[in-house]
Amino acid sequence: MTPDCLFCKIIEGEIPSKKVFEDDRVFAFEDIDPKAPTHVLIIPKKHIVGLKEADPNDAEILGYMQLAAAKLANERKLESGYRTVLNVGPDAGQSVFHIHLHLLGGRKLSWPPG
Ligand code: AMP
Ligand code: ZN
Fold first, then answer.
1. Which of 4, 6, 49, 54 has the fewest Cβ atoms surrounding its Cβ within 10 A?
2. Looking at domain 6-105, what is its CATH homologous superfamily?
3. Residue 3, pLDDT score
4. Among 39, 47, 100, 102, the one annotated catalytic
């Protein structure tokens, strides 16, 4: 656990969240400010700052996060269309520096994103 990391504290239960899934590698919870009917954040239990800070040792967990998103999307019957998003760096709007995969679905999603 990294001190002063909001998402590490959520994993530890120090800060409450609406958990939707957890296993030994990832934790998933409802976004506090949802941008779609489904807006879930999937985070690794290992503290990784962001995609540009990830290294080759993180390849498996990055793929595992995507598969966790697909599993949740399947459970929520979002197969007609959903999106997984990593915001990387301040210009992309990354505001929490513990990597998190957004799962968005349940409405028509426009392209390109803003
Ligand atoms: P990003 O802008 O990609 O860094 O995404 C951060 C996301 O975390 C935003 O969608 C926020 O709404 C969400 N968020 C921030 N604090 C919390 C929290 N305490 N519980 C759940 N989601 C949060
Ligand atoms: Zn963290």
1. 4
2. HIT-like (3.30.428.10)
3. 87
4. 100
